Amino acid sequence: GMMERSTILAAGALVAAWSISPASAAEFHDPKTGFSLTVPAGFVLKSPRSDAKHDFLIGVVSLTGQPPTAGNEEAVCAVGFIRFAKGSVASQADLNAMPARQKMALDIRRTLPGQGMAPQVMQAIPSEAYAGFEIVSKPTLGPDHENVSIYTAIMDRVVGRTNVICVTTKQALPDAYPVFRVIRDGTRPPAE
């Protein structure tokens, strides 16, 4: 009947989508903020969801299971963007200047523990385009948290902040690093 036919069509479309996705990069563009994100072959993007700390948050799922997720998460990374209030940041040069970077680093160190993360390694991301840090933390609670590593990249531009948060196993982190950086570098905030 009609119902059966639409189910078969939907299944067919799903199979087609799956067979196309792994070979090509997946892309997301948020019309409201102008933010876009491209992830490499082998990854797909979940529908953006709203989040208290971001204008939106979008999950990045690995089709191969590499890097492995930790806990029962489906997505290995989440990418979020939050727009700064207009005029709240004078210029990119101001954000990139040492005093602002030091304050940013301090703020990060101060806020992460409140989000259940103990920062272990923190380093500046070398870029003129944004003021950024990448941080490796371990969760302070949760199931099997001793074996979990969290990679966070925080990038500030005049227009707003981009966050990339990836959660994997402690063992997988060294191999996952370059992958997480490719995802990080696939974020493109709006021009203004």
Largest sheet: 8 strands, antiparallel
User: Which word captures the global form?
Assistant: globular
Radius of gyration (CA) equals 18 Å
* Oligomeric grouping of the chains: single chain
Total beta strands = 11
N-to-C SSE series? Answer: HEEEEEEHHEEEEHE
**Class inferred from helices and paired strands:** alpha+beta
Please report the number of helical segments: 4
Topology:
Blueprint: H1 2-20, E1 26-29, E2 36-39, E3 43-45, E4 49-51, E5 54-62, E6 77-83, H2 92-96, H3 98-111, E7 117-125, E8 131-139, E9 148-157, E10 160-169, H4 173-185, E11 187-188
Could you describe the 3D structure shown?
- It is a single chain.
- The chain is about 25% helix and about 35% strand.
- The protein has about 190 residues and is of the alpha+beta class.
- Strands 3, 4, 5, 6, 7, 8, 9 and 10 form an eight-stranded antiparallel β-sheet that branches.
- It is globular and about 40 Å long.
- The protein starts with a helix and ends with a strand.
- About 25% of the residues are buried.
